[in-house]
Design brief:
By secondary structure, this protein is of the alpha+beta class. It has one domain. Helix content is about 40%, strand content about 20%. It contains 2 helices and 2 strands. It starts with a helix and ends with a helix.
């Protein structure tokens, strides 16, 4: 039963947020050129999974946390 609620809330959440994510994608196209990137992360039981994120730093930026990055590495989209 809980799995059904998880599925339904996720489905309707994505459905509701899809127009907002499309607008953010279009804005990101003008700012970075490639607004979405993927990252390999380690999940439960050390099983790797792929995480898709909106890009907030330049493509050539060093791999550091956003709050530790130089101001020139953060895009206008990421600063917002």
């Amino acid at each position: 039963m809980i799995r059904l609620f998880d599925f339904l809330f996720s489905f309707f959440g994505i459905l509701f947020l899809l127009p907002i994510m499309l607008v953010l994608y279009i804005i990101g196209l003008f700012d970075t050129g490639s607004p979405i990137f993927k990252q390999e992360r380690v999940g439960k039981d050390r099983k790797p999974f792929t995480l898709y994120k909106f890009r907030t730093m330049n493509v050539k930026a060093k791999s550091v946390a956003t709050h530790l990055a130089d101001g020139s590495q953060i895009t206008k989209f990421g600063g917002f």
